[in-house]
Amino acid sequence: MRDEFIACGLNDREYQVLMHLLSAGPRTAGSVARSLKAKRPTIYSALEGLEKQGLVEAQKKKGAAIFAAIPVEDLTKVMLENAREKLNRVEGATQLLKPRLARFSNKRSAQVGTFEVSQIESTLEYLLLLKKHLVLENYCAIWNPQVAIYSENVRSSVSQFLKETGKRQNHIRDILVKGSECEWYCEQITNKNHQVRKIEDSSEVLADLIILADSVIVSLNVPEHERAIKIKNQEYASFMLWFFNSLWKKLK
C-alpha cells in the first residue's frame, strides 16, 4: 500500500506512522518513536502532517497527547477530499497565472523547479504529440468527445488513431463524458486493452487530461485552434494518476 499512500500525498515517514497507528491503536509520539526506532521530533513532524491532512486526531489524556488514526472507512474519503481541494487550488492558480504568463508566450518551454512545462500551440502540433505518445504508450485520459471531436478532420484522425492502437494493443483507460460522439468513439474501439467508463458531466473533473508515465498533457479546450500544455514531473503525474484511479473506481 505504500506506493498508493505516497501517490495520495503522504511522505514515507507519514505513511509509516499512519500504518503503525492503524495496527497498534492510539499512541503517544514517544511510543511511536520507540516502536519505529526514530527520533521523536521526526515523529512529531509526521504526526503534525497527518493531523493537517485530517488523517490523525490528537486527544489529551492525563496531560499527554494521544494520537489515533481516523476510522479506516473514512481514510480514502478524506484523502480524496484533500486531493479535490488541492486540484481546485491548482485550477484557481492556473487561471490567475494565464494573463501573467502571456508575456512568455514566445517561449516554447520552461523549467520551473522540477517541472518541465511545454506549450502546444496548434491543432496539428497537438495531434502529432498525441500520436507520438498515445499510439505507443499506455495512458489514462479524461475528456469530452462532444467538445474534442468538432470536425470531420478530427473525427478521421481519431478513427485512424483507434485503428493503430487496435493493432498495438497498448493499455488505455478513458473516462468519457456521455453523448453522441462518445458513443461513436466507443464503437470504433477494437483494442481489447482499451477500457472506457462514462461520466454524466465534466463539471466535477478536470476534463481533457492525458496521464502518461511521467507527464500530464492538459488541453485548454479551444476547438479548431488546439492549445495545450505538457507538464513533465513524476510526482505530479503520480498524483494525477491517483486522482484518475479514484474517479475510475467511483464510476465502476
Could you walk me through the main structural features you see in this protein, from its secondary elements to its overall organization?
The protein has 252 residues and is α+β, with helices and mostly antiparallel strands. It is 51% helix and 21% strand. It has helices spanning 2-7, 12-24, 29-36, 40-52, 72-101, 123-134, 145-148, 152-168, 180-188, 234-250, and strands spanning 56-61, 64-69, 109-112, 115-120, 139-143, 172-177, 194-199, 209-211, 215-219, 228-232. A hairpin with a 2-residue loop joins strand 3 and strand 4 (115-120). The two termini are 21 Å apart. The model has no long low-confidence stretch (mean pLDDT 85).
Short description:
Helix content is 51%, strand content 21%.
Describe the structure using short key phrases.
21% strand; Endonuclease, Chain A; 2 domains; 10 strands; 252 residues; eight-stranded mixed sheet; alpha+beta; Arc Repressor Mutant, subunit A; single chain; elongated
